[in-house]
Amino acid sequence: MEIYKFAQETILEAGKFIRQRMTEEFNINSKQNPNDLVTDVDKETENFLNNRIEERYPEHRILGEEGHGRDITDTRGVIWIVDPIDGTLNFVHQMENFAISVGIYIDGNPYAGLILDVMKGDLYHAAFEHGAYKNDQLLPDIKETNLATSLISTNSNWVIRDGINMPFIEVVRNARSTRSLGSAALEFVNVARGTSSAALFYRLHPWDFAGGIIILEEVGGITTTLLGDDIRLLDTNSIIASNKTIHGEIIEHFKKDGPFIENHKKFHRL
Ligand code: IPD
Ligand code: CA
Ligand code: CA
């Protein structure tokens, strides 16, 4: 549990670093498209995390959104999968509702997941088979729910995208209502806390889901692709993170739609 404890201390320090850095000016740039933003703070926070981990555990590897570990193609040893700011658009526009996400895997197996809601200061964390916590409070197992009485978290981009949207539309139609927070990591946390019953994404990167999967599993939840397949840890995946009952109900909508399955296969190069 030494790595787990170190990870908790380190993510809290990185949160302090971000809050302090927000009091100063920083640059905002766009990546491939104008809505995909990155700031100096994203890069500096990833460097901060990388330096701390490297100093303490030189043999560990780090895969981060802002560039660390691009050469990682296998899961051997200890890998930290890091998103220094998940919810950069919220960081820029709202100055809240963003997180640091860390997933630690040993030989491809879950070891620990940590998600810090940076502005609230709440740390969600779990070590494999040791339960999940909000700060020092154990989270209870999530409840099983049905779509008709559930809040579902998804992004409207997928609901308006031709070729893949039919199952999303059906799920939205059949759910009690939908919410979109804008931080995948915090959407995992909401499922783990039971404030939403499922979170659906057409595409997430490893750093978006690596921490959340472990936390959710510890409260009895499940994460698969939208077609119910296992997640490939080092690739982009479609994702459903949910309780086990609603999981079955939702993936039925995706599994029966021919165009969705075809386009999903091409998009994720399966
Ligand atoms: C994004 C957020 C967002 C999700 C996107 C992610 P970023 O992460 O998690 O909620 O819908 O797919 O890329 O870019 O803010 O780290
Ligand atoms: Ca992210
Ligand atoms: Ca990010």
Helix and strand topology:
Elements: H1 2-21, E1 28-30, E2 37-39, H2 40-56, E3 61-64, E4 78-86, H3 88-93, E5 99-106, E6 109-117, E7 122-127, E8 132-134, E9 137-138, E10 151-154, H4 156-159, H5 165-174, E11 177-179, H6 184-193, E12 198-204, H7 206-218, E13 222-224, E14 237-242, H8 244-255, H9 258-267
Parallel strand pairs: 3-4, 10-11, 10-12
Antiparallel strand pairs: 1-2, 4-5, 5-6, 6-7, 7-8, 8-9, 12-14, 13-14
Helix pairs in contact: 1-2, 6-7
The structure holds D-MYO-inositol-1-phosphate and calcium ion (CA) (2 copies).
Description:
The chain has a seven-stranded mixed sheet, with helices on both faces. A five-stranded mixed sheet has the order 11-10-12-14-13, sandwiched between helices. A two-stranded antiparallel ribbon has the order 1-2. It is α+β, with helices and mostly antiparallel strands. α6 packs parallel to α7 (206-218). The radius of gyration is 18 Å and the shape is globular. The chain has nine helices and 14 strands. The model has no long low-confidence stretch (mean pLDDT 97). A hairpin with a 2-residue loop joins β8 (132-134) and β9 (137-138). It folds into two domains: 2-138, Fructose-1,6-Bisphosphatase, Chain A, domain 1 (2-Layer Sandwich); 147-267, D-Maltodextrin-Binding Protein, domain 2 (3-Layer(aba) Sandwich). Bound molecules: D-MYO-inositol-1-phosphate (IPD) and calcium ion (2 copies).
Main features:
270 residues; alpha+beta; Fructose-1,6-Bisphosphatase, Chain A, domain 1; D-Maltodextrin-Binding Protein, domain 2; 2 domains; seven-stranded mixed β-sheet; 26% strand; binds calcium ion
